[in-house]
Amino acid sequence: MPLGDGTRPISKGLLVLYGLAGLAILLVPWLPVRLLMNHVLYEDFFYYLQIAKNIVESGQPTFDGAAPTNGFAPMWMAVCAIAQLVADGDAAVHLLLTLAALLHLAQAYLVYRILAATCRRLTAHLAAVFYLLNYRILACNLCGLETPLVVFLFLAAIYLIVRSRPPAGLARCVLLGLVLGAAVLTRFDQILLVVFVLVVVLANRAFGQRLLQNRMPAAALVAAVVLLMLTPWFMWSYRHSGTLLPRNDEALKLSRFQQFDLSQPLLHNLHILELKAKETAWWLSDTANLLGLWPAAGPAGGLAMAAVGSILLLAIAVGLCAVRSAPGHRLRCALAACALSIFLFYFVFACTEVRYLIACCGLLIVVAAMIVNEFLERRHSRWMQGAAAVSYAIILLVALSAGVSAWKKNQGATRTHGLHASLYQTAQWLRDHTEPNAIIGSWNAGILGRYSNRTVVNLDGVVNNEAVDAIRHRALAEYVQDRRIDYLVDMHWEVDRYMRRFGGNPAWQDDYRLVHQVHGCTVVLQKRSATPGPGRNMDQAISKADQTEPKKAGWNVALPLAR
User: Fold this and answer.
1) 59-63: long-range pairs with CB below 8 Å, 24+
2) 157, 120, 43: which is closest to 414 by C-alpha?
3) I want to staple 141 with a disulfide (CB 3.0 to 4.6 A). Which of 25, 104, 250, 397 is the partner?
């Protein structure tokens, strides 16, 4: 495959554009944490901070100080622990988000370098600018979780493949294995990337002319390096949690992700397929925002998103066919197939939330840029070039307007950032109005655990191995009793959903009374047998709640049930 012209020096105008954009992006992490919490930060980010703090202080990977967990990405947890070691409080948040912003810049640079290897310099720069200024990508990278690191490593692996020239020797294979191993340790679904890269190595003559004598040993070396990097984690995880992989995935499958079951009748699995299709259509508008195909943030009509998705797939397929005779066709097809595999993986086993699809979208941007570049190279028409320029401008403007819409609606990596304000206010109330030794139980426990200065027990199992077993056996009420939890705190629909489905006690509401609520959303339920704490407003809160609490139907009837 011939090299593109992206190795030439760039103009001063582009340097100024990149410099200003990079400076603006690096300033975002230093906005007030309360503001970031309402727009980009993921609630689970505060799980990482609290676990990292416990690792630094006691050497124990636990969220509440007692229950063990392996429900985290080990590579990103190591980064969080280092940040927690050198900074504390909100300073650690700013430090980690600054690293995430730098990784966002590095991702855009890798998009440029991948395209510079095969396309014109202008094409590579336009794609990099689109990636760099894309609010949805930036928001996902600044969510506080492992997203920026895993996407950077993903693109780095793709770059190593694209840039491989014969003979790709021992050093290239070892480097590729190190990048892939780090990617898997950052998020274990990147095993998909490992499989893709191994297939490419076996098929790519850059790793040797002969399959058995050259390419198979190269693939074996890459796989061996990956396995060598994963082995210490597997040993630690099995010793502490009895599993090789983090148990947070198990918890999510039990409580959130719909799973196909081949042991069930066909109609059952068809129903699951229907539910997944509806859920995908609900989430797909966020991905359409990112790709510049839909201007408004928030859920859109299922038929509209189905049409957008179908048009996108058709355009990619037609584009690949149109330039099939151009050099690099197999690479473009391989990248498109990898993107489709990522999407199907999340569709089948998890959900298609935009944060999970950043790597997939990055590949689609690269493939689309490659197709357009080859198409214009073969048809030197001013009309075609003008149409391509106008189309790019429209897509960029749509993506930018979608970003403005998302910011106004408190949407970024997900659509629930607006609920974080109520969780933060509830954490402040718990700190001021509950006894210092109170134990709090919550399903969205990150912000509460970080800012309440109380022991907070995670009850959805994401960072609590004990809760996973309680959910599986539908014995959550018994687990709450065993852990001597004094308060249940969360959005009222989360409390009701988990306790009703997994509590094991249909009359669990009789054991609690409502003592506080924020915006009719987050509720604080105190166990009736517990003694009210000494907080200055506790008695008034309980008295007010008792006046409005239904005596027979249950506390949640008095609250709005809309999500």
Assistant:
1) 61/240, 63/445, 63/449, 63/456, 63/457, 63/458, 63/463, 63/464
2) 43
3) 104
Residue type for position 438? A
pLDDT tens-place string over residues 238-273: 999 889 999 888 888 888 888 888 888 999 999 999
* Residues 331 and 196: beta-carbon distance below 8 Å: no
For residue 562, give every residue at least 6 positions away whose Cβ sits within 8 Å of its Cβ, in sequence order, or none.
none
Please report, to the nearest 10 degrees, the dihedral formed by the alpha carbons of residues 103, 129, 180, 333 taken in order.
170
Q: What sign has the CA pseudo-torsion 478, 479, 483, 488?
A: negative
CA proximity to 339, closest of 151, 171, 170: 151
DSSP string across 359-417 = HHHHHHHHHHHHHHHHHHHH---HHHHHHHHHHHHHHHHHHHHHHHHHHHTT-SSSS-G
Q: Which of 117, 120, 114 is nearest to 374 (CA)?
A: 120
Q: State pLDDT tens for residues 161-184.
A: 998 777 778 888 999 999 999 999
Residue 283 near residue 351, CB atoms below 8 Å: yes
Question: What's the Rg (C-alpha) of the chain?
Answer: 25
Q: Which residues contact 245 (CB under 8 A, 6 or more apart)?
A: 188, 237
As a dihedral over the C-alpha atoms of residue 337, residue 339, residue 341, residue 346, rounded to 10 degrees, the angle is -170
Q: What is the pLDDT of residue 168?
A: 72
Q: What is the C-alpha separation between 385 and 218, in angstroms, rounded?
A: 42
Average pLDDT, the chain: 89
- 39-65 confidence digits (pLDDT tens): 999 999 999 999 999 999 999 999 999
Half-sphere exposure of 349 (CA within 13 A, CB side): 11
Return the SS3 of 561. coil
Whole-number Å distance between alpha carbons of 70 and 41: 22
CA distance 303 to 319: 24
- pTM of the shown model: 0.91
Q: Are 246 and 71 within 8 A, CB to CB?
A: yes
Using alpha carbons, list the distances in angstroms from residue 275 to 257, 258, 300, 344, 351.
10, 8, 16, 15, 11
Q: What are the tens digits of pLDDT across the range 501-560?
A: 999 999 999 999 999 999 888 999 999 875 555 443 434 443 444 443 433 334 443 333
